[in-house]
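Can't paste images in this forum, so I'm doing it all in text. The chain is below; anyone willing to post the predicted structure tokens underneath?
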Amino acid sequence: MSYQWKVMISIMLGILMFLLDVTVVNVALAKFEGVFSVDVATVQWVITGYALASGVATPLSSYAALRWGSKRVWLIALTTFTVSSLVCGVSPSFGLLVVGRILQGFAGGMLLPIGISQIFAAFPPGERGLALGFFAIPIVAGPALGPTLGGYIVTHSDWRLVFFINLPVGIAAVLLGFFLLREQIAASVPKFDAFGALFSVIGFGSILYGLSRAAPEGWGSVKVVLFLSIGITALIAFAYVELTNEDPLLELRLFGLWSFLIANIVGWVSTIALFGAEFLLPLYLQNLRGLSAVDTGLLLMPQGLAAGVAGPIAGRLTDKIGARYVVAFGFILL
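Text version of the structure:
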């Protein structure tokens, strides 16, 4: 097997574990309310804590990969995610469960960008469409199939298995990464952008927290307005620092490239459309439509199966005819 497909296999397994966990836990939220005797506003911290930590870690991932090597950071993030899954599974209290989820989120925020960068480094330009087509299988199929697995566990078994199922997959992903991946160390390591890191943590963290409190407290509440204001101000400062720094944490000048800007906007919109629904549908189907967790999972399964078929086809078409028509057709279907 060529090295590029060794990279694909090892990265896909790690990403599949990361994304399955997100939607498996979504289905179990109603279960957590009863087990730990908490209300809806409190139980959402299982999701909010994860999102906050992930949003903080993602901008730091590129520097970490350049500083310590992408393979090393990938393995550390995988190990952290696996161990924190164990912490969540054995949690005797809701507080410890949230701590475990925060650790999961921080590790998960590192996995996706580092995984994509390793795939881009391994595949030549003419084959990257096909590579990302295969990579799309866990990205889309994982969140769609997760509710089926989570629904079965919540209905027929112990809720702790929601987290314990990550252990064998995580161990396998670490072993594959250790034996199959090559270390990639940059020829020169940029200086750590301390101000950029500080403003990104404050900015992304404050905005995510403010958005998470908007539903229970209302958009006009002092807390929501305060945190959103702090977050927006910090991100403006972050953008200024990055644009004036010789070694920025994130190279924002890339957004000056029209194709890069449009691709990110398209990706942002499709992510909201797809994963927003993946989060809301399980709660809607169980709490408002009265479906069981198993029936909810089965109802969401076809989307994952279809995505697994469509991903490689779309990737090959992109290599042959370009992304424009493939993306437009996909948005029409969506």
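The radius of gyration is 20 Å. The mean pLDDT is 86.
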